[in-house]
Specification:
alpha/beta, Rossmann fold, Dehydroquinate synthase-like, alpha domain, five-stranded parallel beta sheet, two-stranded antiparallel ribbon, 13 helices, about 45% helix, DHQ_synth_fam, Dehydroquinate_synthase, nucleotide-binding, NAD
Length: about 325
């Protein structure tokens, strides 16, 4: 796939490049490596400009390819740079984190952050392929690994709201110890199941125009607000975990799901060792988070959440104030 390209631009981070760069570059006649910083701070327009200028100096042309070697930050940033350079060059996603393998690398969403919010500048740019090697997950720190489990918890709840539910909640319940121990076979099954769920949803709504794809943002309305307000001290998966609890409690308080269903759903993140309340939440004002959530990409003038219900996941605008207050209390946020 890469050997036929005249030039290959590999975007990565220093620690990841040290581990996997040699295997990627072997057999490539003309490749160049572009390293970006760590953390959400690297997902910026200035990083994209630096990459694009580097691509130009390298001589990258429209028929060449960008390889995103790394986790979600690398995939998002390299993918967006590829989408705007020459109005679009091919990108190959090689995710090395659990979060990227089950979610971020799939579906063609690319974006960077600005101070006003996460992922507000972006484009749809489908990769020519996604190559996931679960052996790379052994090198993740415990916290980064758990961050990926946050997205897996999300897919467990999503699949339970589909008519053809995959039984992912039950699978996680039965194989929790194997998953937490990073068992290779269990991880291979989870990555395949979650990426398959996402690919199916994306295929039905590739550009997020019908509302189907928006359901993949379950838990993300609060999650992105927490990340933005907290300066990305929470990992994405940690924020998603708290966002899932918030969404489920909001749905129950709004009368969309039963207390039994809410209890079942809320047990999933905690069973995987994920946070279920906002750290230092007593110092966080709900109104500050609401102000950020009103700028969410799903919003159309008010507050918009993806919530479970008797008819599956749906976009819900401006839920009742008392239901919001209840959900904030459950995740430990002050009124």
């Amino acid at each position: 796939m890469l050997s036929r390209r005249r030039r290959v631009a590999i975007v990565s981070q220093a620690a990841i490049a040290d581990l996997y760069l040699d295997s990627i570059r072997s057999g490539l006649a003309n490749s160049e490596v572009f390293l970006i910083g760590d953390g959400e701070e690297a997902k910026s327009l200035s990083t994209v400009e630096t990459l694009c200028r580097g691509f130009a100096e390298f001589g990258l042309l429209r028929g060449d390819v960008v390889v995103a070697l790394g986790g979600g930050v690398v995939g998002d940033t390299a993918g967006f740079a590829a989408s705007v350079y020459y109005r679009g060059v091919d990108v190959l996603q090689v995710p090395t984190s659990l979060l990227a393998q089950v979610d971020a690398a799939i579906g063609g969403k690319t974006a960077v952050n600005i101070p006003e919010g996460k992922n507000l500048i972006g484009a749809f740019h489908q990769p020519i392929a996604v190559v996931s090697d679960t052996d790379t997950l052994a090198s993740l720190s415990p916290r980064e690994y758990r961050s990926g489990l946050g997205e897996i918890a999300k897919y467990a709840l999503i699949s339970d709201n589909e008519s053809s539910g995959t039984g992912l909640i039950e699978l996680l319940d039965n194989s929790k110890d194997l998953v937490l121990a990073r068992d290779p076979a269990a991880l291979a099954d989870l990555v395949a199941m979650c990426s398959g769920i996402k690919a199916q949803v994306v295929a039905a709504d590739p550009f997020e125009r019908t509302g189907i794809r928006a359901t993949l943002n379950l838990g993300h309305t609060l999650a992105h607000a927490l990340e933005t307000r907290g300066g990305y001290e929470l990992t994405h998966g940690e924020a998603v975990s708290i966002g899932l609890i918030f969404a489920v409690e909001l749905a129950e308080a709004a009368g969309r799901i039963s207390s039994e269903t809410a209890k079942r759903y809320c047990s999933v993140p905690g069973s995987l060792g994920l946070p279920i309340q906002v750290p230092g939440g007593s110092e966080v004002k709900a109104e500050d988070l609401l102000a950020i959530m009103r700028r969410d990409k799903k919003a159309s003038g008010g507050l918009t959440f993806v919530l479970p219900g008797k008819d599956g996941l749906q976009l819900v605008e401006d839920p009742p104030t008392d239901a919001l207050a209840h959900a904030f209390r459950v995740v430990g946020v002050a009124g």
